Amino acid sequence: MKGAKAKLISTEGDLDHWEIKALVSEPNSIEGIADLLSKRIVSNTPYTRGTVTLSASETDKSAINWKFTDDEGHAWSGEERIDPAPDQQGQFVVTLKLARQPDDKST
Question: Average of pLDDT values for 69-89?
């Protein structure tokens, strides 16, 4: 992540979903990481049609959800979670998940 100091922990996925985990040391707060990720999600989500819609709680900055439609009309949802690293004070585990939503066959 540009503007951050992070170390990749794991990544996995396929064409319909993926998950990435990283250990982040800068920014060094949940609020700082959430702010940076929110800006990156909106500006760097590829192949969007329409807008990227973020939702986050005013009281819980550790979780952000977003939705977008790709250039082929498929709906996607994303989830970001920030948790304090269990054994590294001042660092955080960031988990990003992205999943394609099932196509609506009823129309």
Answer: 90
